Amino acid sequence: MAVDPLVLAEGLTKRFGDFEAVGGIDLEVRRGEAFGFLGPNGAGKSSTMRMIACVSPRSGGKLSVLGMDPDVDGPKVRARLGVVPQQDNLDNELTVRQNLQVYGRFFGLSRAHVRQKAVELLDFAQLADRADDDVEPLSGGMKRRLTIARSLVNDPELLLLDEPTTGLDPQARHLLWDRLFRLKQQGVTLIITTHYMDEAEQLCDRLVVMDGGKIAAEGSPAQLIDQYSTKEVLELRFPPGEQDPEPVTDLGERIEVLPDRILIYTTDGEAALAAAHNRGVMPVSSLVRRSTLEDVFLRLTGRTLVD
């Protein structure tokens, strides 16, 4: 029997005056999955997340979160959500442990409960040895893990994470991915916005690519790569301005010319490279790689920088 989605939007719209930030989108987030929002700056990701988090009223359309209407049942919904903002907003006047305990009291949880919960979360976040330290000296990765631990103090059914690993080094990112994967295994539903394509491929069961307030594509990472890219990409690098795509235009399903290279989207990169060499094409360097979500993202949203 089908399970009702935790988040269901139909024609969801958000306007700020004459500006339409979210333009009538439809989406469904299923219980127990990790769902991602990808998109350039200004695509409407944060506006959509704020509506789901019940901190920004919708301008139009329908929205159900945990089976409730955020406009009517906002406090009830927020009590069952966990929110990890893009910027850590920890209380530097409190210790690591106190940040968890005080936050738990905001949900009306008893002192005994939040004390025990803090012990569990400190262990989960691998911060037990720093429990009574001040927050300020912690590394960026430790602060991020503490912020995520704090968002779990009320045992949320749905966890919203806005750019959870921005600014972290690779080791800290991978440790956070492990923590988030464990949460998903425990049945917590995750909604994630991220600019890291590898993060989306690692964490998300399904995702949407947003651009200009609309949903440009939706599916699993593998489905999106299969639909909008090719199995492999051949990168041919040349001195700037010296690349000539004419000899290789028929070697792939799609060709993209950049200032210092030519990208050939193909099912067999090595065969395309051999064919290019046979035609006298001699790049400075070449690389055959698998297609990634980044290829999909750039095809759907373009390479122009959006501020």
UniProtKB/TrEMBL annotation:
Keyword Membrane in annotation: no
UniProt topology in membrane: Peripheral membrane protein
Compartments in which it is found: Cell membrane
Cell membrane among keywords: no
Domain ABC transporter: 7-237
One Pfam family hit: ABC_tran
Major place of residence: membrane
Molecular function GO terms recorded: ATP binding
Keyword tags: Antibiotic resistance, ATP-binding, Nucleotide-binding, Transport
Family: Belongs to the ABC transporter superfamily.
Protein name: Lipooligosaccharide transport system ATP-binding protein
